[in-house]
Specification:
Blueprint (H helix, E strand, L loop, with lengths): L7 E5 L4 H11 L4 E6 L2 H14 L6 E5 L5 H15 L4 E4 L14 H29 L2 E5 L12 H21 L5 E7 L21 H13 L8 E4 L8
Parallel strand pairs: 1-2, 1-4, 2-3, 4-5, 5-6, 6-7
Length: 241
């Protein structure tokens, strides 16, 4: 995108972690940001916090939306268009993790993981694709290195993230004819609240949320003739095992 100022971005699951840090990075580039969460008060609180830290005239708002519900996603996009009259960037960031052996993983845990991490990404692009056609926008998914590297107790999470990685690449081929750019970012260990973790000093070696936010900005600023479609990101120096 030649200029980011006055563009509008929708970030699913943007109340903390990668989503929140990315919202702040975009806002500081002059991009209006809509943060979604299943909890409306959390979304509004996150937007207020981002607004209090911004360095531009851009604005963040928070709205309730559930990525597992297509109707909810459609309503979120309609609200974005109602507030800002355009949608230029969609970042499918919402995700959860249930980790257990295949023997212990429950049907409910499997379904929630797939519905949130994979189907939720499909709903995010399906609900926004017409708006992105008009803006010739950018769709970015947050996958994981778990989307190419499997591990014990990761059957549900691996399945969802392998799916997101493949889905995003196929969507990229489908949508580039509309001048919509599509990329997936695949982080390794990130210092976030994911799966109940509380970031602390021991996370200093990990990727930080703002690092992913910076990467998103770099993608948006890249010359439109070039598309990094799949980006693996890992800590430079993880602890020795």
């Amino acid at each position: 995108m030649k200029s980011l100022k006055n563009k509008t971005a929708l970030i699913t699951g943007g109340t903390k972690g990668i989503g929140y840090a990315t919202a702040l990075s975009l806002l500081n580039e002059g991009i209006n940001v809509v943060i979604t969460s299943r909890n409306e008060s959390s979304a509004i609180e996150a937007a207020n916090q981002v607004n209090s830290s911004k360095k531009t005239e851009a604005k963040a708002i928070g709205i309730e939306a559930d990525v597992k519900d297509f109707d909810s996603q459609q309503k979120a996009v309609a609200k974005v268009l109602g507030y800002f009259n355009q949608l230029d960037i969609v970042i499918a960031n919402a995700g959860i993790g249930h980790f257990a052996s295949i023997e212990d993983l429950t049907l409910e845990q499997w379904q929630e993981t797939i519905d949130t991490n994979l189907t939720g990404v499909f709903y995010s692009i399906k609900s926004s694709v017409e708006a992105l056609k008009k803006s010739e926008g950018y769709f970015i998914t947050i996958s994981s290195l778990a989307g190419t590297n499997f591990f014990a107790n990761g059957s549900a999470y691996n399945a969802s993230k392998f799916g997101v990685t493949g889905f995003t690449q196929a969507a990229m081929l489908d949508l580039r004819k509309h001048n919509i750019k599509v990329s997936t970012i695949m982080p390794g260990s990130v210092a976030t609240h994911f799966n109940g973790h509380i970031p602390n000093d021991n996370d200093a070696w990990k990727i930080q949320g703002e690092d992913i936010g910076e990467l998103v900005v770099d993608l948006l600023k890249m010359n439109p003739r070039t598309l990094p479609s799949k980006i693996e990101v890992r800590p430079t120096m993880p602890p020795s095992k």
